[in-house]
Design goal:
single chain; elongated
Amino acid sequence: MNTENIIKELNFKAIRSSGAGGQHVNKTSSKIELTFDLENSLSLSDREKELLKTKLSSKLTKENSLILFCEETRSQHRNKEIAIKRFLELIKLNLIRPKKRRKTKPSRASVKKGIEKNKRTSLKKALRKKPKLD
């Protein structure tokens, strides 16, 4: 995965930010909408695309594009930087493949230890009972 090529494929759109801000907020477009077309990306391999499609299925649109918004600051440039940073973290995090689990047997010593523990517990509980008067 080449981050520089992926960043070149991103599309940005500046939108008017919502919320309070007085008269200035009605004139400036500081909110950033980042879109990434996963289907037509040249920077990602087919295996990476499939992995991202499955892991990010809830965040993708019907056309397999990812959309992120950022309106944290009043600066359009800072919002753009934050959006790129979030996007790259999201991609890197979801490209990690979990290790396959290998089945293992418990060692003889651990099995023996478990049996001894169970015997001690059962003896302890047996001693709590009232003695039989036969």
